[in-house]
């Protein structure tokens, strides 16, 4: 391992300029929108924008920018934009509308997000996100998103982790699908009008740089195998997160890091790569045959109670264990928040109980998520009261409660039954933490621009809004905020200076050289003709990452992981075997390229985790913990964003952006 740190550890980098507006926090975004340079409508149609990725961030950005008059090209590797991974989100989207009159506000959403991220996020970006949240809901309602409503027609809310208010808007257990369909409809309208040119089944394999600016991409047609050159005055990367570096995750199997990794190698700094979110409510691993894991929405913690037996290695079935022999450990440890503590805390608590011998199921790597008490008491009794049933029986209460739960979570319960063969209406779900979301990503300034001029990163592809841990229901919020409400303003600050730049022909030497490098890499992969499949290398990488850079990390394990990943990389480039060729449809070739990028990313993640000698949010270094296993931050030495600059194979330079908190009191997180 070689880490080149060209700056003193206590000196912050002058390469990172956040461009945060001056003035009071609550006025920064308003003032910015009123003073940012604009592009004349007549000039917009002469400016071309490339959008890579068509999930919530990409689809909303492409649709909005096209409607504003820009010429947009949108790319996705799926056969349709509506298959983006955003569709898999289940539980909801946050917004500070205070419909429940329970004390919510823009400031409270801002504070909860900063605190939930363990004070490792930039204040200005998070406050802007909270400000935009209410507008997102109005936008989506206007598009026809079928949010849940109460009897009077008002939009309903439910609770999510890390908060004490109800601010999560939802559409049963398929909120991401409904939101994506809204953004997809807006995108397809612009496609139909000729304002967006859609390239499906295309994968971006390189950023084209001309005179230090991003001026286009090289994409591969995944059906024909042809490489293509595309010019753009600006390039937006909206390609999601990189959780599949762990192999098993809740991400779609195609989700990858390639687009932002290519940008990183071209000079875009990578922010906080080791900040990974482990989701506490996933269906446990059942065997080596699995290729992905299935999420059970965090919204289920709103109505379910998490517990383990008080007796170690208890062989009894869940329903046979009496109430007084159950340990509702989150309610015991964190009485103020109970089952709704943030995800990192809930995940570590589940791991601790299982490691201590209280796990359940065949593997003992699971805990129970039980709905029976709320079926009876919360929903059943309310329904019985509505129907005027006095002294209802337990059977009646359960039946009435089931109908309410089916309306709220029916598709999730059906999914669980199909996968496990167990009926969660009758027996508790078994859950265990799994890799879900990555808070790290390309470093961006207030404008969402990376350290490469003209190259932007939106949504989960950037690092900006969540710090060391993302609160549930905030991913959808950030993606739509970036696409609908942020980039349409901030991109003008850059493009207003580009109106004299004519479209650059794609026979420019920079395009020719970039395409050649892509083809050379493909040919190199195909020429190895080794003995091992790309999938086998991905599994081995995932095992290293999960065991040594997963829910818990330590110095010894991280150093071992770096050495093991370097050896794996050497073996990959000498022994991978890819069937088929570069001409035509070849998913094995696509997979190999993505795995090669994951291997390099995995090394950087371990380097980042090794350099951060503290525990914060999802980054839990075993050497740094309070009594009771809580994360022990080091604000004096590590209150900064780690922004890594690529300097060559296995070489990175660490740059630091200081995090300054002027509007909140910094404290150890306390959810007790």
TrEMBL record:
InterPro entries: FAD-dep_OxRdtase_2_FAD-bd, FAD/NAD-bd_sf, Fum_R/Succ_DH_flav-like_C_sf, Fum_Rdtase/Succ_DH_flav-like_C, SdhA/FrdA/AprA, Succ_DH/Fum_Rdt_flav_su, Succ_DH/fumarate_Rdtase_cat_sf. Its EC number is 1.3.5.1. The active site is at residue 343. It comes from the Bacteria. GO terms for molecular function: electron transfer activity; flavin adenine dinucleotide binding; succinate dehydrogenase (quinone) activity. Residues 49-476 form the FAD-dependent oxidoreductase 2 FAD-binding domain. Gene3D superfamilies: FAD/NAD(P)-binding domain, Fumarate reductase/succinate dehydrogenase flavoprotein-like, C-terminal domain, Succinate dehydrogenase/fumarate reductase flavoprotein, catalytic domain. The keyword Membrane applies. It catalyses: a quinone + succinate = fumarate + a quinol. Belongs to the FAD-dependent oxidoreductase 2 family. FRD/SDH subfamily. This is succinate dehydrogenase. It comes from Emticicia aquatilis. The lineage of its organism: Bacteria, Pseudomonadati, Bacteroidota, Cytophagia, Cytophagales. The gene is sdhA.
């Amino acid at each position: 391992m070689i880490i080149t740190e060209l700056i003193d550890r206590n000196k912050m980098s002058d390469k990172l300029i956040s461009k945060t507006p001056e003035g009071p926090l609550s006025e920064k975004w308003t003032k910015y929108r009123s003073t940012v340079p604009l592009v004349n409508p007549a000039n917009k149609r002469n400016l071309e924008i490339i959008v890579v990725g068509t999930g919530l961030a990409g689809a909303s950005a492409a649709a909005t920018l096209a409607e504003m008059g820009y010429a947009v090209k949108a790319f996705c590797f799926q056969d349709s934009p509506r298959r983006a991974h955003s569709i898999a989100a289940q539980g909801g989207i946050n917004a500070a509308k205070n419909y429940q009159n329970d004390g919510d506000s823009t400031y409270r959403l801002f504070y909860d997000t900063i605190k939930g991220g363990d004070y490792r996020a930039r204040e200005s970006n998070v406050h802007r996100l909270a400000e935009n949240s209410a507008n997102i809901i109005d936008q989506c309602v206007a598009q026809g998103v079928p949010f849940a409503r109460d009897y009077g027609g008002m939009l309903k809310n439910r609770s999510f982790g890390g908060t004490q208010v109800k601010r999560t808007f939802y559409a049963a257990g398929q909120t991401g699908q409904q939101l994506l369909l809204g953004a997809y409809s807006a995108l397809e309208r612009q496609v139909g009008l000729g304002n967006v040119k859609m390239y499906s089944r295309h994968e971006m394999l390189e950023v084209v740089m001309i005179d230090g600016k991003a001026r286009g991409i090289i994409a591969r047609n995944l059906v024909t195998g042809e490489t293509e050159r595309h010019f753009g005055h600006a390039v937006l990367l909206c390609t999601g997160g990189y959780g599949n570096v762990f192999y098993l995750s809740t991400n779609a199997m195609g989700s990858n890091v390639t687009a932002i990794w290519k940008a990183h190698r071209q000079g875009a700094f990578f922010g906080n790569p080791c900040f990974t979110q482990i989701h506490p409510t996933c269906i446990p691993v059942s065997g080596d045959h699995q290729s992905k894991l299935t999420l059970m929405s965090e919204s289920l913690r709103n109505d379910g109670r998490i517990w383990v037996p008080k007796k170690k290695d208890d062989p009894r079935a869940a329903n046979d264990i009496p109430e007084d022999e159950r340990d509702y450990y989150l309610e015991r440890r964190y009485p103020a928040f109970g089952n709704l503590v943030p995800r990192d805390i809930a995940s570590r608590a589940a791991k601790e109980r299982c490691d201590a011998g209280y796990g359940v199921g065949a593997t003992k790597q699971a805990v129970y998520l039980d709905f029976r008490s709320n079926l009876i008491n919360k929903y059943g009794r309310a329904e019985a009261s509505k129907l005027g049933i006095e002294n209802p029986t337990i059977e009646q209460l359960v039946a009435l409660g089931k109908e309410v739960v089916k309306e709220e979570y029916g598709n999730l319960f059906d999914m669980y039954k199909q996968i496990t063969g167990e009926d969660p209406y009758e027996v508790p779900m078994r859950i265990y933490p799994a890799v879900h979301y990555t808070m790290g990503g390309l470093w961006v300034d207030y404008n969402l621009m990376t350290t490469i001029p003209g190259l932007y990163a939106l949504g989960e592809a950037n690092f900006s809004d969540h710090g060391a841990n993302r609160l549930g229901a905030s991913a959808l919020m950030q993606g739509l905020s970036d696409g609908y409400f942020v980039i349409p303003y901030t991109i003008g600050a850059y493009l207003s200076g580009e109106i004299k730049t004519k479209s650059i022909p794609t026979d420019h030497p920079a395009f020719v050289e970039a395409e050649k490098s892509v083809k050379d890499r493909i040919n190199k992969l195909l020429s190895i003709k080794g003995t091992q499949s790309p999938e086998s290398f991905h599994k081995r990488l995932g095992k290293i990452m999960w065991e040594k850079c997963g829910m818990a990390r330590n110095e010894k394990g991280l150093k071992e992981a770096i050495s093991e990943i370097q050896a794996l990389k050497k073996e990959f480039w000498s022994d991978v075997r890819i069937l088929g060729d570069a001409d035509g449809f070849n998913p094995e070739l696509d997979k190999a390229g993505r795995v090669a990028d994951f291997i390099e990313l995995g090394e950087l993640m371990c380097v980042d985790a090794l350099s951060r000698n503290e525990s914060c949010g999802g980054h839990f270094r075993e050497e740094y913990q309070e009594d009771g296993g809580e994360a022990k931050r080091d604000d004096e030495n590590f209150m900064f964003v780690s922004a890594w600059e690529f300097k060559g194979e296995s070489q990175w330079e660490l740059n630091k952006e200081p995090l300054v908190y002027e509007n909140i009191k910094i404290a150890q997180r306390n959810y007790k």
